[in-house]
Amino acid sequence: MNIIVVGLSHKTATVEVREKVAFSPNEIEKPLGQLVRLEGIIEGVIVSTCNRVEIYATTRDIAGGIARLKRFLADYHHLPFESLEPHLYSYHAEAAIRHVFRVASSLDSMIVGEPQILGQIKTSYGYAAEYKSSGIILNRFLHKAFSVAKRVRTETRIASSAVSVAFAAVELAKKILGGLSDKTVMLIGAGEMCELAAKHFLNSGAKGVLVTNRTFERAERLAEEFAGEAIRFESLFEHLHRADIVLSSTGAPHCIIGPKEAEDAVKRRRSKPIFFIDIAVPRDI
To answer: What CATH fold (topology level) applies to the domain 2-155?
Structure first.
C-alpha cells in the first residue's frame, strides 16, 4: 500500500484558483464519500485551508491513484481539468510523507511557524475518521505527522518569531490607517482566526469590536470574551457603516459583501472609508 498526496497551495495557485477548489467543512461528508469510492483509492483525507487544498490517500496503484485524485478535484468542482492541472502537485511514498510532515510543521506555510495549520489538519483528519474515509494506514501516518510537528515546535525556535495570518492582517491595518486607537472593528465569523484577530486588534488599541456570525450564539460568546457587541448575521448590513475595519473569515461558499453593500455603507459614513480585510477562501468580500 502506498501513500499519495495531490494538491495545490499558495505556492502554485492564486487565490482565484484556490477558492474554486476549496471544500466547505459543512459539506465535507459528500466529497470524502466520493473520494474513497474512486477506483484504487483505499483511504482518503481532505485538507482545505485558506492557502492549500490537499488530498492524502492510500492506493496500490501510484500513477493511477494520482491521476484519479487530480481528476477528482477538477470534476467535483466542475472545473476544466486542463486549466486546473498545471497548478497541481503530487507526491508518493517517502516524498509524500516528507511533504505532509513539512506541512503539519508549518515549514511549508505562507508564514513559516504559524500555529494554525496543525490544528486544521487535525480537524480534517477528524472529519475523515468520523465519516470512515480514513483507515489504519492514514491513521498511523497522520498521528506520526502530529507528533513530528509537535517536536518541531518544541525542539526548535521555529515558533519564536512566527505570526499568524490574523496578526499580519492587524499589522497591515495599523500601517495603512496609521494606528487603531479610534477604530471600530467588525469581525465576520467567530472561528479561530476571528478570535485571534480580536485579540490582536484590542491589544493594538482598537476602540471596540462588533462580531457577527451565522450562528448568533457563537457571535455572542466571542463578543462577550472581548467586551464587544454581537450582531445577528441577517442584520449585518444595518451595522456595516459603524465599522472602520471589517475583517471576514467564514466558511461561506459565496460572497457575503459585494460592491453595492460596501458602497452603501461608505455613503452612510459620509464617504469616510472602510478598510476591508478578507482572509477567507472562498473569498467573502
So the answer is: Beta Polymerase; domain 2 (3.30.460)
